[in-house]
Amino acid sequence: MGTARDIALIFLSLEALVAALIPLALLSALAYGVYRLQKLAKQYLKLGQVYAQKAHAYVEQASRKVVDPLIGVHTKARMTTTIVEKLVSRRSR
């Protein structure tokens, strides 16, 4: 009876070992996959940065095209207002 108990204990230990090895193997595979993907990710991230910089430049250029005329109109209006105020204040003295 003692021998059967020992054999059963050995098989239970093996089952526990296999059950512990499966998550360990999955975790190792995941770590290896991340390691391999780092090299690819660097290439694509650099490419993504280039496209983001181009998009930023286009947005800046478009913003300037829209805003520059408005700034010019505001500047001219403010200059005219200032000149008129100066002329009116001189006459009132």
Short summary of the structure?
The chain is mainly alpha-helical and 93 residues long.
Order of helices and strands: H
Terminal residue distance:
124 Å
Radius of gyration: 38 Å
Shape: rod-shaped
Helix share, percent: over 70%
Structural commentary:
With 93 residues, the protein is an all-alpha fold. Helices cover 97% and strands 0% of the residues. The protein contains 1 helix and no strands. The chain has one helix at 2-91. The chain is rod-shaped, with a radius of gyration of 38 Å. The termini are far apart.
Features:
93 residues, mainly alpha, 1 helix, 97% helix
Write the layout of secondary structure elements.
Layout: H1 2-91
